[in-house]
């Protein structure tokens, strides 16, 4: 049986190293896998089915706001995700919660607080700072719409948001162009969008008003 594993996904090498050191000291039984971009998060999840918890920085290369969180939650709903961010704005915390995170740890938190939060999540609880903003019905509706997408459709949606044409999306994802067309039609229907531009704007709304960290 494989050892239980943490995935630490953060593109800042110094913070990632400090976080990994804390994990090795306090969670010695766990192996640690690293990722530094949205693409490597997906690859790590695929290559390491023994991952039991993801520690996820929101602002990584290839991510659009909460897109990495939504992608991991959509493709691996049984794996809890704890967001670790330098952006402690209450609305960012609340949106992370509404988009499926099991916890939110500010990067300014002490090692003791980080460890306590992770223990709570591993025990099946949630852990969020108490100053989270009020629930947003708009975010709840958006999360419900995005939850209807398959993992492949979510990848196609992110390509649409990047302005790629069907032919380019097919090349990017290794799909037939006709398959992409089918996905685009399904995406627009599920998201209740009339155009690709409208779908791209929806993805844009995943990004917070201020920079994520």
Task: Please characterize this protein's 3D structure.
The protein folds into 2 domains: 5-122, Rossmann fold (3-Layer(aba) Sandwich), CATH 3.40.50.2300; 137-204, Winged helix-like DNA-binding domain superfamily/Winged helix DNA-binding domain (Arc Repressor Mutant, subunit A). Helix content is 50%, strand content 12%. The protein has helices at residues 13-26, 38-47, 67-75, 90-98, 111-122, 137-146, 151-161, 166-173, 177-190, 196-204; strands at 5-9, 31-35, 51-56, 81-85, 103-106. It has a 5-stranded parallel sheet with strand order 2-1-3-4-5, sandwiched between helices. α3 (67-75) links the parallel β3 and β4 (81-85). α3 (67-75) packs antiparallel against α7 (151-161). The termini are far apart. The relative contact order is 0.12.
Brief summary:
By secondary structure, this protein is of the alpha/beta class. The protein has ten helices and five strands, in the order βαβαβαβαβαααααα.
């Amino acid at each position: 049986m494989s050892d239980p594993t943490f995935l630490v996904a953060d593109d800042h090498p110094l913070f990632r190293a400090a976080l990994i050191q804390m994990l090795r000291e306090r969670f010695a039984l766990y192996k640690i896998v690293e990722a530094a971009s949205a693409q490597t998060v997906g690859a790590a999840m695929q290559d390491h089915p023994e991952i039991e918890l993801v520690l996820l920085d929101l602002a990584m290369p290839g991510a659009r706001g909460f897109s990495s969180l939504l992608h991991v939650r959509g493709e691996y709903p049984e794996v809890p995700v704890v967001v670790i961010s330098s952006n402690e704005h209450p609305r960012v915390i609340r949106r992370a919660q509404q988009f499926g995170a099991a916890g939110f740890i500010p990067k300014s938190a002490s090692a003791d607080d980080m460890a306590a939060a992770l223990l709570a999540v591993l025990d099946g609880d949630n852990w969020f700072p108490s100053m989270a903003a009020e629930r947003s019905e708009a975010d709840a509706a958006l999360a419900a719409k995005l939850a209807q997408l398959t993992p492949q459709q979510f990848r196609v949606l992110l390509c649409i948001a990047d302005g790629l044409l069907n032919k380019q999306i097919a090349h990017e994802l290794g799909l037939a162009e006709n398959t992409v067309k089918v996905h685009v039609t399904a995406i627009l229907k599920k998201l209740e969008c009339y155009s690709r531009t409208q779908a791209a704007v929806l993805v844009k709304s995943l990004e917070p008003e201020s920079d994520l960290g």
